[in-house]
Each structure stands twice: as C-alpha cells, then as structure tokens.
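User: I'm writing a tutorial on reading structure tokens. Could you give me a worked example: one chain, its sequence, then its tokens, then a sentence or two explaining what the tokens reveal?
Assistant: Sure. Here is the example chain.
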Amino acid sequence: MNPFVPTAFDGALMALSVVALLLALAAFISLLLATTASGWRLLAWALVILFVPIVGPATWFVARRRERSVARGQG
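And here are its predicted structure tokens:
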C-alpha cells in the first residue's frame, strides 16, 4: 500500500486492474479462436488489445460481433 494514496482508492485501482487483465485475456483467447483474423490483421488486433487497456479488448468484441452479424446477413 502507498501511504500517499487512500486505501479505498488503492483498492478500486486494483479491482480495475484485475478487470482490465481478465478482459484482455478473454479478448486474446477470442482473437486466437477467430477464423477471420490472420496475418497482419491478427497482429494489429493483438497490439490494440495489449496497448489500449480497456478500450482495446472492448473494441475487439464489438468489431467481432459486427463481423458476425454481417456474415449472417450475407449467408
């Protein structure tokens, strides 16, 4: 614990960090299981998920959902 940071704030940041880590892990697993992402596209998404903490994984899930709905509409 940091003596200059209130305990409640420290706990909230720790919880946010755990959520961000779990979200990134779920996004990586989803990315690896996706059949549409390969090559440079896979690398680009992996970098976005890795370097943009909460927004990156959330963006991946939104993009994947849109991709699936477009594929269903065409097929």
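What the tokens reveal: The helical segments are 7-33, 40-51, 55-74. The chain has one domain: 7-74.
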